[in-house]
Amino acid sequence: MVADKRRSEPSPNVIGRAPSLADTLALRLRDEISSGRFKAGERLPTEQQLAQTYGVSRPIVREAVGRLKHDGLVSSRQGAGAFVAEPGASTVFRLDIANFSDKEELRHIVELLMAVEASATERTAARRSEADLATIRTRLDAMQAAIHRGEPGVDEDVAFHRAIIDATGNPFFRDLSDFLDRRVRNFIRTARANSARLTGMAQTVQGEHEAIFEAIAARDPQAARMAAETHLKNAAKRLAIYLES
Hints:
With 245 residues, the chain is mostly helical. The protein has two domains: 11-84, Arc Repressor Mutant, subunit A (Orthogonal Bundle); 103-244, Up-down Bundle (Four Helix Bundle (Hemerythrin (Met), subunit A)). The chain has ten helices and two strands, in the order H-H-H-H-E-E-H-H-H-H-H-H. The protein has helices at residues 2-8, 21-35, 47-54, 58-70, 103-127, 130-148, 154-166, 171-195, 201-217, 221-244, and strands at residues 74-77, 81-84. A two-stranded antiparallel sheet has the order 1-2.
């Protein structure tokens, strides 16, 4: 009976609950590669072996290894499996956020978001069509309707900012925005979902969105950039409130 109980206990390598097990496993494997446990040119363990080692399913392993391939850390060889790439082989940008409670790291992230989103908003103000403006207005109204319903309006927030990105007419802005959405912005929007519970906070955020819209409507690129930068700075403050709570 004791032996059976011991077999039922999780291995120390097993990954616990996380928002995304694939992301967690990918981060663990990156650490293993960085530490030299898996060396350049070395074949990774099989999906089944990794699943057993880390206590996850094979589909999770496949997804995690796929992330490493996308980041250029791992390459596949037909019929031979996945191998650790040689140093310097990566040709893609990676953004791994380890600790959002680190104020310095948060500042760097906000600066990056400002460089992308504020610039995109500035260009939208200069380039937008009447159809673009109507779409952005619709997304803005949808956020206000969510507030009236007592909802945080996170999905509506995402759609509003995406409409602004789309209106740049630049597909690379869209691609980079999608990347940042997956890596960073969703966490910041978690701050919105939580801070929206504070009296008046949701309407304060909506006021920032209104300022962005008005600048775009006025075709004022500089005002649009400033409104977007102000919104992101305040979003960082709201994130800090969420972290402290």
